[in-house]
Amino acid sequence: MKKYDQTPLRDRTVDGRxxxxxxxxxxxxxxxxxxxxxxxxxxxxxxCRACRSDQRRATxxxxxxRAPRKCRPRAKPLRVGIFNCRECKVDKPIADFHxxxxxxxxxxxxxxxxxxxxxxxRAA
Length: 124
Ligand SMILES: [Zn+2]
Ligand SMILES: [Zn+2]
Description:
The chain has helices at 2-6, 49-60, 112-123, and strands at residues 11-14, 17-22, 27-30, 34-36, 44-48, 82-84, 91-93, 97-99, 107-111. The protein is α+β, with helices and mostly antiparallel strands. It folds into two domains: 2-60, no CATH class; 82-123, no CATH class. Strands 1-2-3 form a three-stranded antiparallel beta sheet, with no helix packed on it. A two-stranded antiparallel sheet has the order 4-5. Strand 6 and strand 7 form a beta hairpin. It is rod-shaped. The mean pLDDT is 80. The structure holds zinc ion (2 copies).
């Protein structure tokens, strides 16, 4: 508890109203909206009620900003300008694929390297 006591609490009075700087949400709040505590300075804790409830919620539920999907989609997420070569299975930039107007994606399924290798094989 000593560590907590060492943290300076900021208090001020605005138009006769006592306010305290909430350490959690980093803003001023009326003192009466702070969590009452016998051992706190001025009878209140260093964070407001809203933040206390946040804290409670956080302890009850592990902090999950967005529920992670349990089943991942099988397909790799589409990355702009990156193709996966059907032959060597390596993700390569679009520039590494020959342009092929005959296919929907506009480029060959094989990268230039594999394409050349296949052509050489066919030619041999
Ligand atoms: Zn707060
Ligand atoms: Zn390849």
